[in-house]
Every structure is written in C-alpha cells, then in structure tokens.
Write a structure and sequence with these properties.
The protein is α+β, with helices and mostly antiparallel strands and 299 residues long. The chain has helices at 19-31, 37-48, 59-71, 109-112, 126-136, 173-179, 183-189, 210-230, 249-253, 290-296; strands at 9-12, 15-18, 105-106, 115-119, 148-155, 158-167, 193-201, 205-206, 236-241, 257-261, 280-285. Strands 4-5-6-7-9-11-10 form a 7-stranded mixed sheet, sandwiched between helices. The protein has a two-stranded antiparallel sheet with strand order 1-2. Strands 3-8 form a two-stranded parallel sheet. A hairpin with a 2-residue loop joins strand 1 (9-12) and strand 2.
C-alpha cells in the first residue's frame, strides 16, 4: 500500500506510478462513474500522454496497470461490463493450413532465384503465417504481444521460410552487460532491440546456406520495416537457441555474436531458481554505433 507520507513509488512497464498518480486515478474513477474499465484506461492514457513510439495509446498496458492496482487495493475499478476471452490465456489456434503440397525446392542459392520478403502483419496472409508456423515449427504458433512483425519469404511464388520478430525481453544479463547500459538506460531504450521469436525453413526446402543468407538479408531490412509501423528504428537483433536441438551454425555463419547462456528463469520468475532449459543467447548489432543509440537514445 502506498503511504502518502512516504516517498513510495511503483514501477510498471517502465513508468513510475507515484502517490500523486494513484490519487489522480482515484479522482478519474470517481468523476466518471459511467465509464467502463476500457474507457477509463483510454482516458488515463490521454491525460498522461502514455503512448507507444508510433503515437498509439498504450491503453492495454494501462489497463493491466489499473487492474494490478485494483487487486492490491489501491484503487477501486467499476465492475467489468463484459468478460471477453483473453487471447493470452486461451490463445486461438491458427486455422488449419489449406492443402499444400509444393514441389521440393532443392539446389543451391543461385538456383533458388529471387527471394521476396513479405511483411504480412497486418494482411490477409497473417493467417497463412500462423498456419505454417503451427504446422511445421516445433514450438508451434503463439500470437506475439507488443510490437512485432511477421515475414513470409517466397521463392518462385512458393513460401520457403517464415520469421517473426517481437519486442525484446526486459531482463537478459548477458545482453545487458554486452551493451553496458544502466537499468534506467535499458528501460528507456529497450524498444531498440528486436527479438527473433520464430525462424522456420519450410520442410519442402533443401537449400544449403539458405538460413544464414536469410538472417543476413533480414538484418538489412528489418529496422526500416519496423520504423514504418512503429516510428522508431532497431539497433540490435537477438534470439535464443536451444542447444539440445541446434548448434547455432547458421547464426555463426551470418556473423551473429554468442553471448552466453540464459539463467533458465522465465520473465515472471520470483523464486530465483531455474524453471526451464538453458538457452544460448545470440545478438547481431545493426550498426557500429548501436551501443551509443541503446545507451543514449535516438534524440
């Protein structure tokens, strides 16, 4: 509980919530009894100018913050007016992929022909992306949250690979030490990192060196594509590799940098004990001055 007589603060998703902020939320709720929880979060975002880099309100994040404060007893939200299914609790499975039996694509890179990188979010091909990942990736499909892009790579008019990128995990010791930023610098500039959540070469494709080639090509276009949708560039790419399944060969060939193993704890862990398998952490800087941008920001 916040004590107005003390310098109590709560941090939520990079924002400091002060005693005065809690009082402001209480007044907002009491002055607008007709508003739903969703409309209250929108009104609060507008009052605080709490927006994403592309200018969109961070109302879903705000709603989570208000619900957390409600559950802790600091504020009292109105009763929910509807109970929609939470897609993060009950994620919808992608639609089954239409019957697809393309000819095998074999040979070397030069024989593959021109590659087309299609950013499919948000387009009708978003569903095809989810179906391909669900059908052929060992982790299946999970709907990304926050900032994210999805690519289907085509050759000869046929999908040959899929890649998904999303907002980076907030805390990664090897990465944070590699950048050499402080906690505040990380909170201020973590949007400059993109995390490769899925990378799939489709099973009908047998082309040596294709994976490393795609990683190199993606490094040249991702920041521009990200800025088109989110109005800020990317400075660093990162991914996890399960060493029980893969050796990181394609990442090494594409000049990615191995930083070490994760701690084996999830992002919401409070026990400080490993609860999942260790993963290798690999990164790829998108410019010589990436560290300065991630430490100082892009002002």
């Amino acid at each position: 509980m916040l004590d107005p007589g003390m310098n109590n603060e709560i941090r939520y998703r990079g924002r400091i919530i002060s005693v005065e902020d809690i009082e402001f939320i209480r007044r907002l709720i009491s002055d607008n009894p007709q508003l739903s929880r969703r409309r209250l979060s929108v009104r609060l975002c507008e009052a605080w100018n709490w927006v994403q880099p592309n200018g969109a309100l961070r109302d879903m994040v705000c709603r989570g913050m208000m619900l957390q404060r409600h559950r802790s007893g600091l504020i009292r939200l109105p009763e929910p007016r509807q109970s929609p299914t939470n897609p993060l609790v009950r994620p919808r499975r992608p639609q089954p992929m239409p019957a697809c039996d393309p000819d095998r694509i074999e040979g070397n890179l030069s024989q593959l022909g021109e590659l087309e990188f299609r950013q499919v979010r948000p387009t009708p091909q978003d569903g095809l992306f989810g179906s391909l990942i669900q059908s052929h990736h060992y982790l299946g499909y999970t709907q990304p949250v926050g900032e994210h892009l999805k690519f289907i790579i085509y050759a000869r008019g046929v999908p040959v690979a899929c890649m998904a990128w999303s907002s980076a995990p907030r805390h990664l010791g090897p990465r944070d030490r590699f950048i050499r930023w402080s906690g505040q610098q990380r909170r201020d500039n973590i949007a400059g990192i993109a995390y490769n959540t899925r990378f799939l070469i489709l099973p009908w494709v047998k082309v040596p060196n294709l994976a490393s080639h795609l990683l190199s090509r993606m490094a040249k276009i991702l920041s521009e594509q990200w800025e088109k949708l989110y109005n800020h560039p990317i400075q660093l790419l990162e991914t996890f590799i399960d060493p029980t399944r893969f050796r990181g060969t394609c990442h090494r060939a594409a000049n990615w940098i191995y930083l070490g193993l994760t701690t084996g704890r999830g992002k919401n862990d409070h026990t400080y004990k490993p609860n999942r398998s260790l993963k290798q952490l690999w990164v790829y800087p998108l410019g010589k001055d990436f560290r300065n941008h991630l430490i100082r920001g892009d002002e």
